[in-house]
User: Fold these one by one.
Assistant:
Number 1:
Amino acid sequence: PRRIRAVALPGDGIGPEIMDAVQRMLAAAGARIDWEECEAGAGVALPGGLPGETMDAIASAGLVLKGPLQTSLGGGGKSANVTLRKHFELFANIRPARRLPGVVTPYADRDIDLVIVRENVEDLYAGIEHMQTPDVAQCLKLISRSGSRKIAEAAFALARAQGRSRVTCASKANIMKLSEGLFKEAFEEVAAAHPAIQSDHMIIDNLAHRLVLSPESFDVICTTNMNGDIISDLTAGLVGGLGLAPSANLGAGMALFEAVHGSAPDIAGQGLANPTALLLASLMMLRQAGLPSVAERLEHALYVTLEDGKELTPDLAGPTGIDAGSTSAFTDRVIS
Amino acid sequence: PRRIRAVALPGDGIGPEIMDAVQRMLAAAGARIDWEECEAGAGVALPGGLPGETMDAIASAGLVLKGPLQTSLGGGGKSANVTLRKHFELFANIRPARRLPGVVTPYADRDIDLVIVRENVEDLYAGIEHMQTPDVAQCLKLISRSGSRKIAEAAFALARAQGRSRVTCASKANIMKLSEGLFKEAFEEVAAAHPAIQSDHMIIDNLAHRLVLSPESFDVICTTNMNGDIISDLTAGLVGGLGLAPSANLGAGMALFEAVHGSAPDIAGQGLANPTALLLASLMMLRQAGLPSVAERLEHALYVTLEDGKELTPDLAGPTGIDAGSTSAFTDRVIS
Ligand SMILES: CC(C)[C@H](C(=O)O)[C@@H](O)C(=O)O
Ligand SMILES: CC(C)[C@H](C(=O)O)[C@@H](O)C(=O)O
C-alpha cells in the first residue's frame, strides 16, 4: 500500500492522548503514514497558537489530522480553529452523523446516516464586528454568490461520490431575503446542473425541528456557516454526542481532519478521553488520501469494539461506569 | 369570574379552523372572553396583510390570540409575524417545551419542562440587508445592551414567577465577541442582580448538542433572536413537534399569543388541523390575563384527551391513522 504524508497537530487538553491513540490504531491497521508532528495551541508561546513552522508544514503536506485547540488563544481574540479554516481557505466543512453500533441514544432504532456540508469561511464568521456605541454592537453577515456556489458544488460532488440521492439546502431566506436568499439562489443554480441528484430547500428552524423528529429522512444537508455550526452539533447529539463526531475541512489541495469536540481540560491527562471522534476523522482522511481499504478495516474494528461494549471510555460506558476502560485499554481492544 | 377582552386573528390556511376550535374550548371551560375578530393575512387586499383597523384593535385590547400568517405577504417582503413583533415592540418571545401525556416521541421517558426566552426584535431580524455587489450580500446583526438586558430581565422574572431555579444564557460569544459578547455580558449583569436564581452560560452549538442529549436538564434558556428561532423549533420537536408548540410575544402592556407552526395550506379546510398548539397558546393567554383556574381546567381536559388517544387529529394518531379524528371531533372530546 501507498505511503502518505500528513501533519499531526495534537493540540490542547486531551489532544495529545487521543492523537497518540489514533496514531497507534492507524499503524496497527497497516496505514503507512509519515507523520510530521507540529505544535499548535495553548502550549505555543505566541498569540493565536499557530507558529509559522506549523503553517508551513501544513501548506507543504496538504493533509492534516488535528486535535482540539482551545478556543481563545489571544491573537486578537481570533479562534485558532477559525484561523486555520480562513488561512487555508478550507471552505467546506463536512460533518457526517451516522448511527454507531452499541451506542445508546433515543434514536438507536433509526437508521441515521446523513452528512452536513457546512460553508466554512463566510457568514457571521467573517469576523467583521464593531461597537457602534458603547451599548450597541454590530456584526456583519457576509454571503457571496461564489462562496455559496462552491459549497453547493461540494455538496453535490459529495452526494455523487458517496452514492447519495438527495441534497437539502437549509437557509433562513424567508427572513434574510438578500443574504440567505443569495445562498439559496446559488444552491438552486448548482442543483439545476445536477439533475441526477434530488434537491430541496428547508427553512433552517424547520430543519432543526425535522432533524429531531425524523433524522433518518435526511441525506446531505448544505447550509451556511452559523446554521451549520448549530445544526451539526444537533446531529452529533442524535448519534451519541461530540465524543463521536468527526469533521473534514476541505479546500483546494488541502484537507484538515478534526474531532468536533473541544479540548476537555477537566479530564486531560487522566486516560479518560474517548479517541473515537478523532479516529473517525482519521478514517475520513484515509479515504480522502485514497486508502479506503485500511479505513474499512479500522472502521470494522471500531464497530466491533463498540458493539462488544467492553472497556469503553467512561463517556460511553453507561450510567454505572462498571466495566469502563481507559483511553489506552479501549485503543488496545480496537487494535486486537 | 372576570371578563376579559381580546383580539382574535384567525389568519391564513388552517388558522380559521383552529381558532374556531379553540374559541369553542375556551367558552366551554367557562372563560368569559369578549373577542374582537380582526382580519390579517393573505385574505387582506393590502401588502403586508395587516390593515390599520387590525393594528388599532390590537393596540387598544393589548391581548391577542393569533393564528398562523403566511410568511410572505408582499409589503416589502417583510413577514407579517415580524412586523407585529416590531410594531408593538414585543421584545420577549416565550416558548415552553413540556412533555405531553400520550404523545409518542423518542424522549417520552424524559421529564422535559423547559422554557425558551428568545429576544424578539433585534439581531439578524432587524432587517438591515443590502447587496454590496450583485454577488455579495451583507446583513447587519445588531445587538444592544438595553435590548439584551430587557430579555435577561424577562427570563429571570419568568423563572421567579414560575418557581424555576436556573436560567441558562446561550450565545456564540466565543466567535462574535462584541455582538453576542454584549448579549452575554448584559445577561451576566442582570444575573448578578438575581442571586436567588442560578445562572450559567453555554455556547449555542453546545446547547443544541446538550438539548438533544439531555433536554430534561434544562430549565429556562435565554438567547438571541436567530439562535432562539432555531433552538425553539428543536425543543418543539423534542416534545412532539410544532403542532403542539405555543408561544407568547410580550411587550410593555401588550401580549400576543400564537402557535409556532405555519398556515399549512395543504390541509386547510379539510378538518385535519390540530388545534393543540393554539389551545396551549390560549392557556398562556389566560394565565397572563389572570385566569389561571380556567387554564388549569382546560389543560387537564387536553391532557386527558391526549392520554386517552382516541380521535386525535391525524398528525398525532400514529402511523396507521386508524381511530384518527377530525379537528371538531378532537375539540368535542376535550370539551366533554
Ligand atoms: C470552536 C469553534 C470556533 C468552532 C466553530 O464555531 O466553528 C466549533 O464550534 C466547531 O463547530 O468547529
Ligand atoms: C415565520 C417566521 C418569521 C418566524 C421567525 O423566524 O421568527 C417563525 O419561524 C417563528 O419562529 O415564529
Number 2:
Amino acid sequence: MDTFFYPRSIAVVGASKTNLGYSVLMNLVNGFQGGIYPVNRNHGEIEGVPCFSTLEAIPYPVDLAIIIVPAASIPAVLEACARKGIQSVIIESAGFAETGADGLALQDQCVAIAKGAGIRIWGPNCMGVVDILRKHFFTFMHPAIRAEGLLPGRISLIVQSGMMSAIFLVELAHRGIGVAKACSIGNRADVDECDVLEYLLADPDTEVIALYSESILRGRLFAQMAQSSTKPIVLLKGGSSEAGAQAAKSHTYSLSGNSRLLNSVLELSGVTVADEIYQMMDLANALATIPHIDPACRTAIVTLSGGAGVLACDALERHGIPVAQLSEQTKKTLSELFPVWMPVANPIDLFPTVGLHGRDVAFGRAISAVLEDSNVDVLLIHVVVGLGEDIEDLAALKKKADQLGKMVLFWLMGRQEAGERFRQRARTLGIPVHADISRAAECLRAVSKFMVHKTIATADGAASTPPSASVSKKPPLPSREKIWDEFDSKQFLASWAIPVVEERLVDSLDEAWRTAQAMGLPVVVKGLMPGEVHKTEHGLVQLGITDKFLLEAAFHHIQEKLDHRGKILIQKQVQSEYELIAGFIRDNQCGPCVMFGLGGILAELEPDVAFAMAPLYREGALKLIKRIRSRRLLQGFRGMPPLDGEAMADILVNLGTVGVAYQQIEQIDINPLAISTGAPVAVDATVMLKD
Amino acid sequence: MDTFFYPRSIAVVGASKTNLGYSVLMNLVNGFQGGIYPVNRNHGEIEGVPCFSTLEAIPYPVDLAIIIVPAASIPAVLEACARKGIQSVIIESAGFAETGADGLALQDQCVAIAKGAGIRIWGPNCMGVVDILRKHFFTFMHPAIRAEGLLPGRISLIVQSGMMSAIFLVELAHRGIGVAKACSIGNRADVDECDVLEYLLADPDTEVIALYSESILRGRLFAQMAQSSTKPIVLLKGGSSEAGAQAAKSHTYSLSGNSRLLNSVLELSGVTVADEIYQMMDLANALATIPHIDPACRTAIVTLSGGAGVLACDALERHGIPVAQLSEQTKKTLSELFPVWMPVANPIDLFPTVGLHGRDVAFGRAISAVLEDSNVDVLLIHVVVGLGEDIEDLAALKKKADQLGKMVLFWLMGRQEAGERFRQRARTLGIPVHADISRAAECLRAVSKFMVHKTIATADGAASTPPSASVSKKPPLPSREKIWDEFDSKQFLASWAIPVVEERLVDSLDEAWRTAQAMGLPVVVKGLMPGEVHKTEHGLVQLGITDKFLLEAAFHHIQEKLDHRGKILIQKQVQSEYELIAGFIRDNQCGPCVMFGLGGILAELEPDVAFAMAPLYREGALKLIKRIRSRRLLQGFRGMPPLDGEAMADILVNLGTVGVAYQQIEQIDINPLAISTGAPVAVDATVMLKD
C-alpha cells in the first residue's frame, strides 16, 4: 500500500494537453517531487515534461502508474504495467462495474490480469489519492479545489464516491479543518475501505479517519479493526433510508445491506456514526482535538447572555451531556463576583458582574474557578465578538485547561470579521469553536463515547474471557427443516443453557388437562404447523386458559385449525413485566451477529435493537445490553425488579456461540423473551437453517 | 401599539454624550425622520441636536418616550410623561423584576403610575423596537450591529431576551435573511408577546413571525391567535429541558411552565416549533418564501453526484418528506437523455448524461420534465458551483416553477466565492438555498405542515361544530375530595358518556364472588384507599383472578392491606391490544387542556403525548389523535383492529367539556384507557379538584 501514497516515480498513462489527462499531470507537476513520466504517443512533451510513447519506453524504474485512458484499452495497459514491473496502479477512468454487466466483465478482466502479475489496483472510477501534507495530488481533481486553500491536518478521508471526495476537501477547507490524506476508492475492484483503513490506522500522519460509504465490503473486518483502534473513526453511511438504499444501489451497484445492523455493530466497535456531511466533518474535527478528559463530560457554561445559557442547557440535555453541578468552593468564588440578588448556578451568566468588576476580571475569575472545579470536565464559553472587548488571552486559557485536564470550547456569535479572527486564533491553539450549540453538544457526546471506547480498546484482556458455553461438545443439529417449530427451537436452545418456558406437546385433551394442572394455571394452548411462524395471526394461539372448560374449547378450536397437520403445545403462561427480543443473524457484511432489543408491539413501531458480532464475550454482551434506547427500562424502572444482567448476558453469549458453532444456522429469533421478576425466559423462538 | 412603531416624535429621557443614552440618540439621528427631543439638563445639545431640561420643557407634542435613566428615577419620569400627555413609553433601563423583590416592587409601581395615566409601557429591561424597512432604531443597540448589513425583509422578530435580539439581527444578516421589525420586549411589565403578535399579524410588512421566549404569559390567547393565523409563526422556546428550565427561571424570573404542553398546544395551533437558533432562522426564512404547493411535498432530486442523491434521500426520509415517484412520461423523457445502462429513477443523477448531451441540455431537459410531472411538488437541485459551468438562468427556472405551482430549492456546495454569488442571485429571486440537506428537509417538513394548517385556518366553520356533551345540563359534582378514588372518578366520567370498565364495590367475599361470576372471569380485585393513587405499588391490585380460590386469597390480602380504611372493588379484567392515556389538565399558560397519548410502561420511558386547548371540537379531537408519534399503532397495526376514532374523539371532546364546565376540576387522568378490539374503555381514572 505504501507505493500508492509515497511512490518514488509515477507514470501517467493518458497524460494529455486537455481534459482529465492534463489535470492529472498538472496536479503532479505542482507538488510531487519524484519522477513524473507522461505516457502519450502524440506529444513529445506536455508543459515542458517529456513524454514517452509507451510505458516500456520509460528508461527509469516506475513505482506507480495512474491510468486515465478509455476503459476498453485498460487491460492492454495493465499487461504493459506487468511487463514494466509496476506493482501499483490507480485506475481513475470510469466505464466499469458502475455501467452494468459489460463494464463488470471488463473490470473482472482487469482484476484477473493484475492478480496474475502481482499488481494492486486502486479504483477504477475514482479520484485517486491526495496527501495534503506532502502536496501529493494523484488525481484529476479540478485545480480550483487546491485554490480553495486546503489545510494540512490530522484527519484522513476514505470516500467511496468520487464527487464526494472533492466536495469533502472543499467543504473542510471552508470550515478551516485540516486534512492529512484523502482516498477516493471508487469501485473497489481490489483495494477497498478495509485495506485503506488498515493503512491509515498505522499512518503516523493520521489521527482521525472519516469515511463516506454506501456499503462496506468486509464489514466484519472493518468492525474488528475499529474495535481495537485508538484512533477515532467517523462513518457517514449513505443509504440508511429505504429511498436512499434504493438510490445507492443504482449509484454504486452494491447493496447497502442492513444499515441498521452495520451501524449498530460499528457503533459498538467504537465507530462514531454521522447522518450528514457537515456533522461528519464537525465530529471528526472534534475527535481530532480532544484532550484526555473524563468521559462524563460534565459541562459548565459561561456566558453574558442568559438566553444563550438557557439554550445551551437545552441542547446539552437533548444530547445526553450533563450540565455540571458546581462545587461549593466554586459557588463561593462566584458569589463574590455576583450582585447579592443573583443566585449562583450553572449556566454562569456573567452579565450582571461585568458592570461591577469589568469584563476581564469577571471572566478571568469565573473561568479560573470553573476550570479548577473537580465537578467540571468541560468548559463551554459563549461569546459574542466584535461588539466590545473580546476574550484576548486564549493561549493562557488553553494552557490552564490542559494543565488541569479539562476541555474548553467556544460557542461563537457576533460580527463576521471579528468572528473569523477569533476562529483562526482558536484553531491555531486547538480550541474547538462552534456556531451551532446543538452541534457542539453532539460533538461532546461523540467525545464522551470515544473516551469510553478508548479505555476499553487500550486495556488488554477485555476480549480474553471465553464464552461460557464451549463449542467443543457440539452435538449434531436435531432437525434439517429450514424453519423449525417453536418447540424444537426452544428444546435446542435449552440444550445450550438458554432458559425457556415450561411446555409440553400433547396428543389428547386428557393429556392437555393433566399437563395444564401439573404446570399450574393459566396456560397457553398453541398449534404448531410446519413452517408457520405467524401463529397468532392464524388463530393458533389461545392465551389465558384458566379452567378445564376453556382448555377444551381452545384444544378443539386449534385441533380444527390444524386439520391433522400439526402438533398441540401446552405452555405455562408467563406473567412478565415486559418483553425483550434476542437472536442470532448471519449478515452479508458483518457475518455472524447477535441481536438484542425491546419486544412488544411498540418496538415494532419504533424498533429499538442493537447488534454485536459473534462470538460474543461476556463483556461484549454486557455492553450490547446497554446499547438499546430503552436501557432505563432494564434498570428497575418504576419499582420493577431490575433485569438479571448476568442471565441476559449468558443468553446473548450462548446465542452467538451456537450460531458460530453451526454454520448451517441462518437465523435464530427469540421473540418474546419475557422478563419475569427480572429473569429472562424464551416464550417463543424460531431457528432457521440455510437453504 | 402603532405609536411604538410609527411615532411622529420621540423624546429620549437620559440622552447623553456617552454610553447607552448616546447610542439611543445616535440610532434615532441616523434614520428616524420625525422629531427627536433629547432630555438632559446638563447639555444644551448633543451632536448638534438641541436638548431639553425636562419633558415638559419640550414645546412640541411627543408621541413616544424612550427612557434610559437609572431605574429608581423612572417613576418620576413616568409622572412627567403623564403630565406631558405621552401615551407610549419604552423603558430600556434594567434594574427591575429581574433583580428580585425590590426591583419587582419598583416595576409594579411604574405599571401602576402608567395605568393611572393611560400610558402603555414597553419593557423594562429591553432593547426596544427596530424597523429595518423604515430605519427606525428605537434602541441602545451597538451601532456595529447596523454595520453588519441588516437586510430589509418580511420576517418580524419577537424576542424576550435583550442580548438575543441583537444576536438574531446579526446572525440573520450573516445568513442573508431580511427582517421587517424586531421587538425586544424584556420584562413584559405591560406589553407582552400577545400584544406584539396581534400587532404583527395585522402588519402588512410582516409575513412571518419568529419568536424567542422562555415563557408565554398568555399562552392560551397566543395559541388562539396562531390557530386562525395565515401568517407562519416560528417559536424557539428556551427552557425545554430540565436544566434549561432551571436556568430560565433564574434568567427571567418566570416559570418556563410545562414546555411539553405549551409546545404541543402551539404546534396543534399551526406554530412551527424550533429547537435552536439557526434552525429557527432557516425555518422562518423557508416559510417566508413558499409558493402555494401541495402539502404532500413529493420531492424530486436532480444532481450530478450519485452520493449526494443518496444522502438527500436519507435526509428527506428522516424528516418524513416523500421522495417522488416519477410519472411514466417523465421517465420516458429522462431515458432519452440517459445512457442505455443507466436506470431512470429519482434521485436523478445526471452525471452520465453530461458527457452525452452537454451540461445545459441535460439539466434543461431534465428540470423541465420534472417540473411538469404531476407527481412532483418540489424540485431539489444539488449543485457544486465554481468547478466549471454553473446553472445560469435561475430566473427562467423560478418562473417556470411558479407557473406550474411547484417549489424549487437548491442544495449548494462548491467554491466559496461562486457560492456567495449563487446565493445572492437565488435570494433576489426568492429561491431557497441550503448548505445542509438535513436543514433543507426540515424546512420542507415545516412548509408541508404549514400548508395543511393554512387550509384549515382559511376554511370557515371548522370550529363551529359544538361539543357533543352539552354543558347546560350540568349536575353538581358528586364529591369534594381533593383526589377521588377510581370508582367515584369513573362513575362521574361515565355520567359524561365516557365508556368505563364494568366494576362494582363489594362488602363481602360472597358478594365479590357473585359479582365476579356475573361479570365473567377473569376479574381484578382492587383496594381503594382515600387519596391513594399508587395502588399497584402498594399491593392493592390483584390481576387475573380466575377462580374462587384465587378470589378468596386476593380478597383477604387486600382487606388486610386496607385495614378497614377503604373499599374493595371487583372489576372485569379487560383484554386489550394496547393502552392509551387521556385526560384533562388546567395549565398556567394555556388554561384548560385535553391530553391524549400512549399508555404503558414504555410510554413512561419515552413519553408520547399531545395536548390541545379545551373546549375541544370534534375536528380538533380528531387532529389531536393524529399528533402522537405512535399514530401508526392506531391505524390497525400488524393485523390489530384500528382504533374507533369516533369513540376516541368523543372521549376527548367530553373530557374537555367536563373540565371547562367545572372550574373546580384541576386534573383528570384516565390511565390506562384500554383499547379492546378497537374500542376505548377507561380502566383506571382519577379526578383531582383544586385546593
Number 3:
Amino acid sequence: MVKVKIIGATGYGGIGLIELLAGHPEAEITALVAREDVGRRVSEVYPHLEGFCDLPILDAADPRAAEAEADIVVFSTPDRVGMFEAGKVLARGAKALDFSGDFRFTTPEAYADYATRHGKDPKHAAPELLGKNAYGLAELHREAIKKAPVVGNPGCFACSCILGLAPAAKARLFEPTSVICDCKTGVSGAGKKLAAAHHFPARHENMNAYRLAGHQHVCEVERELGLQYGQDVRLTFTAQVVPLCRGIMSTLYAQLLAPLSEADAVALYKDFYKDAPFVRVYGPDAPIGTNCVSRTNFCDLVVSVDARTGRLRVVSYIDNLMKGQAGSALQNINLMAGLPETLGLMRSGLYP
Amino acid sequence: MVKVKIIGATGYGGIGLIELLAGHPEAEITALVAREDVGRRVSEVYPHLEGFCDLPILDAADPRAAEAEADIVVFSTPDRVGMFEAGKVLARGAKALDFSGDFRFTTPEAYADYATRHGKDPKHAAPELLGKNAYGLAELHREAIKKAPVVGNPGCFACSCILGLAPAAKARLFEPTSVICDCKTGVSGAGKKLAAAHHFPARHENMNAYRLAGHQHVCEVERELGLQYGQDVRLTFTAQVVPLCRGIMSTLYAQLLAPLSEADAVALYKDFYKDAPFVRVYGPDAPIGTNCVSRTNFCDLVVSVDARTGRLRVVSYIDNLMKGQAGSALQNINLMAGLPETLGLMRSGLYP
Amino acid sequence: MVKVKIIGATGYGGIGLIELLAGHPEAEITALVAREDVGRRVSEVYPHLEGFCDLPILDAADPRAAEAEADIVVFSTPDRVGMFEAGKVLARGAKALDFSGDFRFTTPEAYADYATRHGKDPKHAAPELLGKNAYGLAELHREAIKKAPVVGNPGCFACSCILGLAPAAKARLFEPTSVICDCKTGVSGAGKKLAAAHHFPARHENMNAYRLAGHQHVCEVERELGLQYGQDVRLTFTAQVVPLCRGIMSTLYAQLLAPLSEADAVALYKDFYKDAPFVRVYGPDAPIGTNCVSRTNFCDLVVSVDARTGRLRVVSYIDNLMKGQAGSALQNINLMAGLPETLGLMRSGLYP
Amino acid sequence: MVKVKIIGATGYGGIGLIELLAGHPEAEITALVAREDVGRRVSEVYPHLEGFCDLPILDAADPRAAEAEADIVVFSTPDRVGMFEAGKVLARGAKALDFSGDFRFTTPEAYADYATRHGKDPKHAAPELLGKNAYGLAELHREAIKKAPVVGNPGCFACSCILGLAPAAKARLFEPTSVICDCKTGVSGAGKKLAAAHHFPARHENMNAYRLAGHQHVCEVERELGLQYGQDVRLTFTAQVVPLCRGIMSTLYAQLLAPLSEADAVALYKDFYKDAPFVRVYGPDAPIGTNCVSRTNFCDLVVSVDARTGRLRVVSYIDNLMKGQAGSALQNINLMAGLPETLGLMRSGLYP
C-alpha cells in the first residue's frame, strides 16, 4: 500500500489525484494540505467525493500534515513551492512528485532558461537535486522515473506536443527548426482560479489565442524533442483556449527531410509506442476527437502527411487534467512505488 | 461470472452498459446485437472502447447472437421489442432486463393505460409475464428485482421523480393531487437519434419545454407514488431540455397536509434512504448540482419546505444515462445475479 | 435627440444599453460612469464596441460626469445606489431609470417588505419619490412610465413571470395562492461578477437550483400579479441556473378555478397583449425556445392547460439581458422621451 | 430599393441573409425558394422571423418564384446548382450572387482544379461566364464586384485566411511555400444538415481535426494569395471543429524572408486595410477573441512575429455565418446595387 500525501489538494490537479487514488487498489491518501477551506472535510466542499474521500483539509502548518506518513509527497502547487520542500521530503525517506516547472529540468541552466522566459527568478532553490530528478513522462523516461527521488510531472501542453513528435524526432524525419505547435486547450487548463476571460458568459461562445509573446511550455518541448533528435529543436508555439471543459488538441507541423508515405509514418509511430499502454496511434481517417480520451489517461495520435507541401502533421489528443496532469501523476506514482504502470488508470471513457 | 448479452448495443444505453461491464470484476459481455454498424468491432465505431471491448456488432439474425451464452439478456431497445423476445429468453433459462416501457407495469391494464397515453398499441404481447416482472428501481423494489425473471428498467425522468417524492408519499405528507414535476434534462436524454432540435448549433444556446400535451413518464411516476401513498396520486409533468450533455434536475412540488419543518423533512428522507447506497439527501444549503452526480449512479436529493405557501419542494439530481439508465441497469443486473448491489458502480464523479 | 448618461456603464446592463443606444436613431450617450477601467475608452476594454462607442469611462467624481447633459440618467447599479442619486437627477430637470430594486415599489412599506426579505436595510432613502415612480414594465404600465420622473426597471425573472401570468390574473382564472414559478436562467443572469459557481469548467456541464430559502424577485411578482388580480397572490418561486449565456425560461403553474380550454386560454392571452409589440403568444405546439427571443426584446409565451389536473401552465421565454434588462430599459427610455416604443429595438434574432 | 430573390432560403446562409435584409433600409426580399417546408411561411418554421419576414417558402418550380422581380438573385445552394441557373438570371437583366464554389474561380482551368480536388465534375456548366465573374471578397475586389454580373461569395475558412495573409503576400514578406493555415470553426460552419458528429451530445465537449486529406478551401486561398504575391503560394491547411456555434479562428504561419518587427508588421496591415470598414488590425496584446466579431461582419486580425523562429503569425477572427457568409453577401449586394458598402451591416456585437 503506497501512502500518498497531497500538498495543494484542492486545485484541479489535487482533486483529480484524489479521485484516482480513491479508486486505486494499492494506494492510500494520508493527508490533504491546502490553503483554502482548511478544517472542512474535502467532501463537504466537493460533494462528489462524499464517501470516497472524507479527509479534512489541513493547513501546511498543522502538525497532522507533517506527521502523516507518506511514501510519496505530491506537490500540486505553483512554481517555486516544491523546490523548497522536496529536500525535506527526501530527508524523511520519501519521494516527491511535483506538478510545477520546478523539477522538469535536470540542470540549473535549463531551469534558468525556463524561468527567465516567463519572468521568474532564474535561480533554483535546490540545485543539488537537479540531475537526480526525472522528467515525468513515462513514455520517454520510464526507467529514470522508477529510480528518481524527485519527479517533475509534465505540463499539459508539453505532454501533448512531446508525445506527438517524439517518434519523428527520434527518427530525425524533419528539419529541426521547422516545427510549429498549434495547441488548443479546454478551459480547465487554466486552472481553478477565477478570471474574467473564463467567466462562463465570456467564454461560452468564444475562442482566442493568448500569451502570443511566449509560453512557458516551449522550453520543455524543445528540450525533450532535442533529446530525442540528438540536436537542438526550435519551434513556434501557439496557445489557444476553446470552450470545452477538458481536452487538448495539439496540431503539430514539421517539414520532412525526405518524402514519407502516410503508411510508413503511421507504422513508425506504432512501433515507437508499442510498449506504451496509454498511447494509441491512428491514420488520418480514424474518427478521433478529444472525446475519445476525455476523462482517461490516453493520448491518441492521428498521423498524416501533406504530400503537396512535404509536411508531417500529427494531431495529438489528450485530456489536459488526466494524461496532462493527474493521470500522468498516478502513472508516475505507480512507477515510483514499483507498482504496475496502469494500476487504477485503465478506465475507458464514457460516451457521449 | 455473470454472462450478459446486449440487444440494441449501440444506443446510449447499450454503450453505457458496455463501459460499465468492461470495468466490472464479475461480469462478461458475450454478444452485442444492433442494427447499425453490423460486422464492425464496436471499438472501431466507438474508439474510446479500444482495448476495453472489441467484440463485433452482430445482426439479430446472426446465429452467433442466438448461440452466445447469457445469464441475463438486456434489451436496450424501443418499446415493443423486448416484449416479443422476453419469453424466449426465459425459456432458455436466462433472465431479461428491458430498458423500454414494456416491463415497467405489472398488469395488462396498467400497460394499456401507459401505451394509450402516448399513442401505442395498448395490447401487451406477453401479458403472461406481467405480474412476474419487477419495476427496476432497486431503492423501492430490491427484493422483487432479485427474484423476478424479467425486470423493466425505469425511465430516466421517472427515476428522478419517484426517488424525489417516494419518502413523502410513503409518509402521506402531501395532498395527493397537488404534485407538480418540473423536469429538465440534458440532451442525451433524447438519445442518439439525430434531430433538428438537437443539432449542436440549434441546441447550444437554447432551452425549451416540449411535448406539453403529455409525457409517457407520467404513468410510471403516478403508479409508483400511488403504491407508496396507498392512494392514487395525480400530477402535472413538464419535460424541458437544456444544453447539457448529461443530467436531470427535477424540481418537485407538493402541497403539505400539515406544517413541516425543513429539518424534519430532511430527517425523514435520510431515514427512508438509510440503506440505499446510491441516494444522498441534503438540506437546502448544500451546493449540489448535476455535476455532483454526473457520470455516477448517485441520486442527490435537496429537500426544502416553502413555509409561506406550505409546500414541500425537492430537487432531484441524477445523471440520466447512469442512474437514469445504464447505472440502474447494472444495479439491477447485480441484484438479479446475486452479486453485491454496488459492484462495479462505486465510482466518484470527476471534477470539474 | 434624447441624451442619456449611464451610471454603472460596464456591467452587463450598462454595456447592453450602450450597444442598443449606439444603433438608435434618436438617442445619444453623453457620459459613461463606472468604477472599473476608469480613464480607458470603453471600446478598448470591450473591443466589440470599437467604432460604435469610444467614450471614456469616467469616475463618478469626475466633473465631466456631472457636467454631461442628460435627459435621462440610467442607474445600472446595485440596490441602494440609485435611491441616493435620483433626487439630484430630478432637481436638474432630468429623469431617472434605475435597474435595481430601488424604484420597483411605490410605497415605503412595499419597499421595506422587499428589502427585508433579502437582508437589506428596509428604510428607503428617498421615500418622497415612491408614489411618483413607475414600475418599468411597459406592457402593464405604459402610461405611467411616460409620465413618471423615476422608473424602476423590472428584474429579469420577475419580468418573465409577470408577463406570463398577468392575463390570467387579470381574468381571475386561477386560485390566487396556487401559483408556482419554476424559473431557469442562463448564467449571464448572475452578472459579470466572478464566482466559483460560474467559472466555465464548473458551470459548463452543470445545472442547479439556488437560493432556495427565498429570492428577491418574489415580491415584485406577487405585487404585480396582485394588482392585476385585485387580491393578494401568493407563490412559490424556484431560481435555477443552466449552462446558457442568455435566456430565461419560466414555467408557471396555477390551479384553474373553472375548466378552461386551451384555445380559450390562448385567445385570452392574445387579446390581453394585442397592443404589446414585444409579446408573442403561442399554443402548446409551437416550436418556441429561448433561441426565438435570444438577443431580442421579445417575450414569447406558450400557453397550455393540463386538463387532467385542472392547471394552467404558461412557459415564458425572454432574453434576460434584453427584455429582462437593457431592452426593457430602452423601451422605457423611448416612452419616457416621448419616442415610439419600438424605436431601435425592432431587430429579429439571428439563427442559429 | 434593391429587390432580392433567395434560392436555398432555409439553410443557414439563406436565413442569415433574410435576417440582414429584413433590417436593411434599401432592400426588399421578393421571393424565397427552398426544397423543405414549401408552402409554409418562413416565420412559421423559424419563429424568430415572425413580423420580420413572413413570406411563403416556394418550390423552385412554382411560377411565383420565377415571376418575382429581382435585381439580384442569390444562390445559397450547394456546388453545381448556381452554374446552371446564372445564365438565365443574367438573361432577365438581373445579377447573380452564388454562395458555392461555382463562381469563385475565373477560368475553367482553375475551376477544374478546385472541383477535382474534392471529387466533383471538373467541367463547369457555364464556362462563358468565367472571366466575367468576380470573387466576392470586397476587401480585395471591390471594383470588380461592383461591375460583375456574377459574383462568387467566398468560403468561410478561405475568407479568414485570405484576409489574414493578403497584406503580407502583397508585400512579399514570406517564403511562398512556407504557409500553414491552422483553422478552427464553430459547428454552424458545417451547415444545417444533421450529422452524427454534430449531434449535441457528441459535439458538446469534443473537438477534432477533419478531412485531413484535403479541404476544398485550399484552392481559393492559394489562388488569392498568389494573386497578391504575384507568384504561386503553397500551403498546408488544417480544418478543425470546436464546440462553438459561430466563429472562425484561423492561425496563420509563414516564414519571413527578412527580420520584421512586430510594430512594422502591424503598421503594414493597418495601412493595407485603411479603407476596409470591416477589417480591424491589432497587435499581440489586444484582448481579441471570436466574441468580438460574433454576429457581426468584422474580421479582426491579431498580428505577431515569433522572432526566435523568424515567423509571421496572424490570428484571423470572423463569424463564419456573417463575414464568412451572409454578411459578405450583403456587402456584395450593396456593391452590386451601387449602395454604400456598409448599409445594413454596421452593427456592433452584443456582449456577452
